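Handoff note, outgoing to incoming analyst
You'll be picking up this chain. Sequence as last confirmed:
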Amino acid sequence: MNNLAQTYQSQGKWKEAQSIQAQVLEMRNRILGVDHPDTLSSMNNLAYAFQSQGKWEEAEPVHVQALNMQTKILGPEHPDTLTSMNNLAYTFKSQGKWKEAELMHMQVLDM
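Most recent structure output, in case you need it:
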């Protein structure tokens, strides 16, 4: 299902991709658990589907949750954690939250 969502994203079918990403996240939560790296990846994929549609307010809490969990589970210097920090910073910037974006980018650079 994740591959289908990515195919939709490649085609610019963001609503379809978002729907499938939400289903994949729910399934991975249920089957693998919330702490599994694949579940965390699905969180980021769903947030990306939101941000690709300009749904910044919906993307932000998903990015925050993914980042918090990745920091806890993978550690603050893990590449996936750093990518999530960058994604969240981009989401902040896109909402005009310049200070939050700057601070997040600085944290990435400090790692």
